Amino acid sequence: MPGPMAGRTVLVTGGTNGIGKATAAGLAALGARVAITGRDPGRAETAAAEIRADGGPPVEVFVADMSAQAEVRRLASDVLAALPRLDVLVNNVGGFWNTRRVTVDGLEHMFALNHLAPFLLTHLLIDRLIESAPARVVTVSSDAQRMGRIDFADLQGERSWSGQRAYNQSKLANVLFTYELARRLRGTGVTATVLHPGLVRTGFGAEDPGRIQRMITPFMGLMKSPEQGARTSIHLASAPEVEGITGQFFANRKPRRSSRRSYDEADALRLWEVSAGLVGLDTGTAGPLAQPRLDAS
Q1: Are 118 and 72 in contact (CB under 8 A)?
Q2: Which long-range contacts (CB under 8 A, 24 or more apart) does 257-262 make?
Q3: 3-state secondary structure of 47
Q4: Containing domain of residue 193, as a range?
């Protein structure tokens, strides 16, 4: 018997482990045609085989290091060639590194991966999402956004660095991006929501942990499993009751107020324009995401 997501196609970025893999598995179990992204071909193929629902179609794999803009662009091209429709984009990829790192594009790594990658990928796939409407863009943020501040004078952390501060900023950027995206997509049939998955038991931040990551390690057993952490992502990607809901922040599958700073439309517009410049997008050209929307949400 076909599931409630039968006939729908979903792309989950960072789908080889943790919340992303659990999200992809949950949506495959609901009958969706699922595609995932990952950096390592072997790990991605293994994850795809494990995600595949019993009797369901194979899970498609796209390999890309999404901290690099050229790879995000190649990824989008590959997705457009392989997927004739795209009903849901789950911007799940992200990470934490306590030490400042720079990408091949000369950008701070967390800002590039956590914010600029979903910003650019969403732009590159938006026409396909609109063609497939009603469609959804779901972005995984964190309650770290509540401690975030967008430091426009030092977005890349060149003058002053803190891994946790940079992470908080990137997660606030996810929320500002989602709210601005929702404003610009009005009338297209594509919605944009953002979520906090909760404290989840994964290898997040383990490669280069900060003080907070080291502090919570002894309490890993009390944290959510990846499957529990994926529930809100799956809900926003699939649930009929959120059809048409846009520009909202969710936690535990329920709408919730995000931080006060996240509702600053001037900051959202400024971040959008700065981000477009950093990824080489022309905000003045025609298109569904081109023109600023200053009306109230």
Answers
A1: no
A2: 258/145, 258/146, 258/175, 258/194, 259/145, 259/146, 259/148, 259/172, 259/175, 261/148, 261/149, 261/150, 261/172, 262/145, 262/172, 262/175, 262/176, 262/179
A3: helix
A4: 9-279
- Stretch (H or E) spanning 132: none
DSSP bridge pairs for 61 = 36
* Amino acid in position 221: G
Residue 60 lies in a domain: yes
Q: What is the CATH number of the domain that holds 56?
A: 3.40.50.720
Burial class (CB in 10 A: 0-12, 13-18, 19+), 49: exposed
Q: What three-state secondary structure class fits 152?
A: coil
SS3 at position 249: strand
Q: How many CB atoms lie within 10 A of CB 224?
A: 16
Q: What is the pLDDT of residues 168-213, one digit of tens each?
A: 999 999 999 999 999 999 999 999 999 999 987 555 544 655 455 4
Q: Give domain status of residue 290, yes or no.
A: no
Domain count, the chain: 1
Examine residue 180 and state whether it is found in any structural domain, yes or no.
yes
User: 232 near 195, Cβ under 8 Å?
Assistant: yes
Q: Using one digit for the tens of pLDDT, what is the confidence trace for 90-110?
A: 999 999 999 999 999 999 999
Strands 248-251 and 254-256 come out as antiparallel
103, 160 contact by CB (below 8 A): no
Read off the pTM: 0.91
Tell me which of 96, 97, 111, 167 is the catalytic residue: 167
Of the chain, the end-to-end C-alpha distance in Å amounts to 40
In DSSP notation, 58-97 reads PPEEEE--TTSHHHHHHHHHHHHHH-S--SEEEE------
What sign for the dihedral angle of Cα 36, 38, 42, 46?
Answer: negative
Is 167 a known active-site residue?
Answer: yes
